[in-house]
Amino acid sequence: MAEDHGDMKKLFKAMQILIFYQCQYHLTHVTSDSYDEKTVKSVLAQLFGKTG
């Protein structure tokens, strides 16, 4: 159960980071494109300790 709580905290942190990246991207780019998939995977890998 404690492990589930830890995963939820990591997921929440990942969401905060990705929202921050999205906001920064839209502030610096005129197009409506979203942040790239590589950035998303990188952030999630760092938080959850997974590679690849």
UniProtKB/TrEMBL annotation:
Domain of life: Eukaryota
UniProt protein name: Uncharacterized protein
